[in-house]
Amino acid sequence: MKKISILLTILAILFIFPIEALAVEYSIEKTRIDAYLQENGEVHVTETHTYAFEGEFNGITRSLIPKKETAIVDVSAKEGDQALDVEQQVNEYRVYRSGSDETITVDLSYTIENGIEKYTDVARFDWPFFDQSNESDYNQMDVYVHPPKPTEGVIAYGEDEAAGSESIEEEGVVHFNMGHVDSGENGDIRTAFDASLFPNATLTEDTAIRGEILAKKEELDEKQAAYEARKDFFTTISPFIIGAFAIYLLILIIYTVRKRNAVQQEVERRFGTAYFVPKEEMSLPATIAYMNARLVNEKTLTAALLDLVRKGYVKHDDEEHFIVMERNTDHKHESLLLSWLFDKIGRNGEFTLKHLKVYTKDKKNHKAYRDDFHKWKQAVLEDIKGNKLKSNEGKLRIVVGISSLLLLPLIILFGIYGLFLSLAIMIVFFGTFFSFACLYSPRAVKGERIYKQWKSFQAKYPSLKEQEWEELQDDEQKRAFIYSLGTNNKHVNKASDKMMKATPQFNSGTQTDFVMFMVIAAAINHDFKEAHTTAAAAYSSSGGTPGGGVGGGGGGSGAF
Predict the structure, then answer these.
(1) What DSSP string runs through 99-168?
(2) Which of 84, 332, 400, 525 meets the CB 3.0–4.6 Å disulfide criterion with 77?
């Protein structure tokens, strides 16, 4: 049965993530494309691709998408002198050459029919050997365009990834040295040669276009020059911008550290050493939530009910029966809890665990249970907020937030101009400042005092000796126990269990009452957890595509 489960899991993964599960690991180290222009308007192309594979592979793929009014024919492949099988699937060609952990070089040949557009003065060859549909990076891409005969007066330029990569070599050969090309990018090459070199090509249009091509090239050259100038400008100023924000961040760090140290020193100066069980400056449920990252759950609810017993608002006859003794409470969440447990779940000011089980057993009450719990939870959190435990740093957060927004234009500009190191640093700055603006809320003196005192209690409580526990007042013991129960700290809970076992050895009066207190806690905590789980579970159930290159052409590379 276990093997079947494993098999089904594997099949499910392969079904959901088929591409990722079966992906071939490879890189295209080098690609050279030679386009030989023919006098009749055809273009004979040879491509040399060097692949480095990790693991097993079956071959490579090459997507060849023809432009409108053109066709790609006679596709063949070889490795050295060995011919390789090629399978066509619309515009994708699969070249079969299997192996494992190898670096291979495959030569691909094909002919582009009607690849040259002839006009009265020039013939142009514009082609996208890859476009945005390409899924692989080329580590080094070189394209060479060879005229039928040696010539002069060649016009050449590139767009997108090919922009600024052209150079005219001996005998009129055009070389586009594009370097590294990322996947998903366009890279059109555009060339024009004297029309007399193509006597057998069909005239595309009886007009002269050399001036138009030169104007377009000049326009692109101007744009490229402007781009490079702006890139140089941002390259020059980026260290100063980064330095300025680094200093700003350092000042911010120094301010926050000094602020925190000042608050801690004030706590030490004014209050010194705290009692072992801290004095009650805030309601216990709110204190528990504050010390527990504002988490309010069934354990907090158990602690809140026990706190009502401790304060005398509620009396317990036995471990499952509770009676309201006083409704004039100190806090809103205490009144809400009395109303919820003793009037809505219980009856006539009485609450038992049987009431809780009957109430949550009825599915109609599940939404009401969750809603009432949420209201009580919000009241507890409002109690924390009302005690002003956090410093008001609104102005500082606004200033930092505005300064983080100033980084956005710089992030965009650094990305546009390819300043990737500066871009990464600015993104880190933005994340830091934006997070600071959203989250910075340091503890005030009162908040620091409460936090420090209860943290000290948590650290000392597990090592408390039985004699020291006996010396504590009954109310201190109960507050210590309620706090440990609500925060659910395993070390603190372990200490409470130890004290519970030791308690019967001492005085029988208040100590016996405390033992009953802990027995009650165990019972109601279990039932509140069960009620929470029940209510929460029920409530929650409630053909070939055109290329992106010039003329609708394009292509890309891959492996399988």
Answers:
(1) EES-EEEEEEEEEEET--EE-SSEEEEEEESS-TT--S-EEEEEEEEE-SS--S--EEEE-GGGTT-EEE
(2) 84
